[in-house]
Amino acid sequence: MAITKKVSTTINSQVPDFIRSDAPLFKAFVEGYYEFLEQANNVLDASRNLLNYQDIDTSIDKYTEYLRREVIPDFPRDTQANTHFLLKNAKDLYTSRGSEKSYQLLFRALYNQEIEIYDPGESILRASDGRYVKENSIRVGDPALGNTQTLLGTNITGLSSGATAKVERINRTTESGFIVQELFLSGVSGDFQDLELVRNSGNTVNATIYNITGTITGINLVDKGAGYVIGDSLTLSTPTSTKDGTATVAETDNFSAIQFAVSHGGKGYTLGNNITAITADDNGTGAAFYVSSLSNTEVLLIDSDDISAVADVPLNVTGGTTNSNTNTAFARLGANSRTLSANLATANVNSKLGSALAFTNTTVGTINSVYTTSYGYNYVNIPTISVRNPAVAELRLVDPDKPTTFKGNNAIITATHVDGALKSTTVTDGGLSFNKYENLSIVNNTRTPVANASGLPSITGLRSYEGKYTDTKGFLSWNNRLQDNFFYQVYSYVIRSKTALQKYKQFVDDLLHPAGTKMFGEYIQTSNVSVGTIMLSNVSISTASKSFDSSSITFDSSNTTFDAF
To answer: What is the pTM of this model?
Structure first.
């Protein structure tokens, strides 16, 4: 590199005047001397360009050779890469020595080839070596902001739960007839919630989790039941769940469920369901009972007709346009879908009530016991209860035991709280495929409660799939190999290259080969061979530590077969 600031050009100004005038030849000699030193590769040129020579991109060939002998003495001279490139990348080669990256760099430099490194140790059969994974996903609807597809490879966060995960892939699917995007996740931390908003780190995509089926996280109780004890073990299932969930009783409530008992049985009641009224002054609901037994029975003749079907039909209308008092059945004009008794159906304006209506002998009596069919829930206060048999009560028959009351409307039923209503649970195993709209079966494995609770599952926003093996690692009688301490061992490796092993073995041994390991070469030959009008392209032959001579391939076009080797 030429010197821009020269000493020779400054001699005239540095020499005293008397020398310039008395000894001009001396001045010329000094200038010529420095011009000589400033010539290429001379002292001043070399000293002034020393820093430039240290830069491999600007160094001279002579100095480059010194650098080569110092930095890469074992590197072959006949390579595809020039010396400058090798010197610039020598540090990367040596610092990554023994790694797959260093082998790739070496082969690019030597042969301008890409290679593969195969580890036979990966094919060794090992006990319990299977790669078993369980996939998790969330399903989201159309985003309120951005494009769901841009979430691929990014991290997302649930705004309500604070859960985080990375989106590995995205599938388009349906959920109850709606098109949704299913995001398959890795590195899940926390519990994503159904119907919560998720977003990416840049807040460029916001989408809502929409999940119908999933792992159960809790129970939305409808009926809290009774008879539960804290710590009881529960099994949870729905008609379509593929794996049962489990839970334990965390809290119970002794002021929620109620049961019924007879305080005064009254008179005039029938077995079965009587019209009852349970009036609560709080949020209590769901409790019910029926009369299960009677005492002090008697038989009453009670009208069994329902006249509502003809209640608005005039008695003297027979079907014509004028009024008349004929013996035609009055029900004919007003008949509807309601079935009438035979007597009432044929009655007319001249009929007597005793013969027009149907009367039935009915056994009534005192309420001896009642059966609680539902204990209800949220009855903080004891409700008011009335029991009325309208068919008897409307007869206004005085009860001789209680002259101020009428039969069918004078029983007294009381309620009391039942201990052990289910208040909250702790889910210990969320199971799989719980549908949040299906009734939840809650089975107590510890004891038989007085009444089973019921409700709907609360599900996570996260969907969990059955686990699967990602490869055949650890599979017996498959493609795995027994360790042989030669090829199939943890200290061997194979270089798959288009160059024969014997050509690069010494270079690899000198430059990269880790001590204590065994190297193998797999030669990949690619060539084009033509036979008449037949062209065979990209014929690949792989051998271990062998080179292949394509001239040894012979074709017999008469029978379209060929032999190799």
So the answer is: 0.53
